[in-house]
Design a protein that fits this description.
The chain is α/β, with parallel strands linked by helices and 226 residues long. The chain is built from 7 helices and 10 strands. The chain has one domain: P-loop containing nucleotide triphosphate hydrolases (Rossmann fold). Helices cover 31% and strands 28% of the residues. The structure holds adenosine-5'-triphosphate. This is ABC transporter ATP-binding protein.
Length: 226
Amino acid sequence: MAELIRLEQLSHSFWQAKQEHPILKGISMSINDGETVAITGPSGSGKSTLLSILGLLDTASSGQYYLRQQSVNTLNRQQKAQIRNQHLGWIFQNFSLIGDMTALENVALPLRFNTTVPSSHYRATAEAALIKVGLADKLNALPAELSGGQQQRVAIARALVSQPSLILADEPTGNLDTTTGQSIVNLLLQLAAEGTTVVLVTHDLAIAKQCQRAIHLVDGCLTDAQ
Ligand SMILES: Nc1ncnc2c1ncn2[C@@H]1O[C@H](COP(=O)(O)OP(=O)(O)OP(=O)(O)O)[C@@H](O)[C@H]1O
């Protein structure tokens, strides 16, 4: 499998009252296409920060991040935005759906910013994504009319509508009961089996064990990279 991500001595700090507070300290690792990787670790260990950097929402203070062999440091804002839109999909604990838009409209939203998909294809593309996550009968439902698990499925459809190489999920099952959470994990594992890389942050070790790799962060350091 080809290498999708490589981090070399990646570090990140935030500054408060002229004082440096390191969050990530010298992270080195690589992730291949189609891998499932869980990021675990105690609260405050830097998991979400690492995910934000992987998802190009934040830039590391030092070190190197190569995405498909290209250093993200060489990308300008527009190039990063294009990669975020066309190659990355996000899933959040609170689903982050737009309340007054239907499932179909929520899923179609990223396509409006994707110049490679003609507007005449928005509906069919979004519909296909919702069918894939098992929501063929909920296309016109508003988020409030859906269960938590169904809302997360809409969010997954939105994440995969642009056929991303990488799905980043921050505690995707955190607001769901165990059974519903497991069905969401199954769906993410299925996407990975079809070639999409999935990196997820979780506190749940039972979920981490189902991923091919678990990366453990303690105090901003990687302790278990395999
Ligand atoms: N911009 C910032 N300003 C102040 N503190 C920050 C900032 N960004 C991150 N932090 C701190 O950095 C540490 C790491 O945060 P991060 O959210 O990455 O941890 P986490 O492992 O995801 O935690 P949790 O499991 O609780 O979500 C925390 O102590 C957080 O408060």
